[in-house]
Amino acid sequence: MSVRRTVNAFERWSSNGQPLVLATVIDTAGSTYSKTGRRMLLTADGAYEGLVSGGCLEGDLAEHARAVLETGEARTVTYDMRDEADELWGLGAGCKGLIRLLLQKLDAEHRYEPFRSIAAHLTHGAQAGSVTVITSEDPALFPGACLIQNQAGDECWGVPETHRSALHEICSSYSAQAGSLSTHDAGAGAFTVLFIPLEPAPRLLVLGAGRDAEPIVALASQLGWQVVVADHRAGQLEQGTFGEARAVCLVEPAELAASIDLTQFSAVIVMSHHLDTDRLYLEQLAESSIAYLGLLGPTHRRERLLSDLGETGNVLAGKLHGPAGLDIGADSPESIALALLAEMHAVLSGHRGGSLTPAK
To answer: Domain containing 144: what range?
Structure first.
């Protein structure tokens, strides 16, 4: 389930004043469906959005969530499925892994924090970091207390003034790429915190509003990505089905960089199907720091465009993914969209995009 779907459910439930439980994966071992930092929301009647397993734990989690709603106290829940006996007497998941979660209550009285702010950072905010108290022997610091650190400063919930500087320092000491548990002592007792980076959902710029752009927008939106579609042809934009895009922009190719803030995007795919237009797009993208820069079309078209761009083409050559997409035998707009998004996802997450099947 995408972050966007979870946030949409949160907005729907919180607008009705429903109390909720936020479940966060705080530790794993062995083979598990989720890794540290994955979140889901649960309601009092057992409804939930987001997944921390393939569906085998969520029903049991609902029972724990009801207890958290009744007491208002955060609690940790551990599922250890590494024992063979689990297949007979336990949940029978067969995952051979351990997963530990923190469950904490969210309600209107506390403005549904800290998840309201977490959701804002994940959907449209700047990169930030968070530390959440998991266990505490310090009588002033309770499990569930949270600090978010970003460029604008710190935001805190349940953190006493006496502990804010300590949590600030803890958050500052971590890399933005990794989440982990650590134990500290501010003088009144040990406490354990979980650091989780808050990285906004990827932002994709689609340059070209042909019919083959539609499944790209739809699939990226399903993943929770924020998508902007741009084209210089008003007719293409009007005829296309881009309701799931965050924005649809009429832009002259030569004015792309002046019309759109390119620094906000994680990935861009150039696909106007027009040589001169794609050349103008690539010329302005050459110096950008966008993590994924893709070009639709065959190899000979890519080489012609790079050659026409001269020195700018040399700059692009080392970072342009073209033909864009993974080699999956794509032969339709939908399967091409799948190949493109798979390659983008791999690049943005730092993976090579190969098979998970062990080599023989």
So the answer is: 113-201
Single-letter code of the amino acid located at 164: R
CB atoms within 10 A of CB 157: 18
d(CA 42, CA 23): 8
pLDDT band at 71 (very low <50, low <70, confident <90, very high): very high
Q: Which residue type, as a one-letter code, is found at position 13?
A: W
By CB atoms closer than 10 A (0-12, 13-18, 19+), residue 66 is middle
The last residue of one of the domains, among 87, 110, 133, is 110
Domain boundary at 201, 236, 264, which?
201
Q: DSSP per residue over 27-64, as a string? A: EEEES-SS-TT-EEEEETTS-EES-SSSSSSHHHHHHH
351 burial type by CB count under 10 A (0-12 exposed, 13-18 middle, 19+ buried) = exposed
> Taking a C-beta distance cutoff of 8 angstroms, is the pair 246, 220 a contact?
no
Question: Tens digit of pLDDT for each residue in 309-347?
Answer: 999 999 999 899 999 999 999 999 999 999 999 999 999
Asked whether residue 31 falls in the same domain as residue 120, the answer is: no
Q: Are residues 237 and 171 in the same domain?
A: no
* Cβ partners under 8 Å of residue 120, min gap 6: none
pTM to 2 decimal places? 0.82
Q: Is 134 left (phi over 0), alpha (psi -120 to 50) or beta?
A: alpha
**Of 133, 229, 223, the residue nearest 183 (C-alpha):** 133
What is the CA 30 to chain-centroid distance, rounded? Answer: 23
Same domain, 104 and 118: no
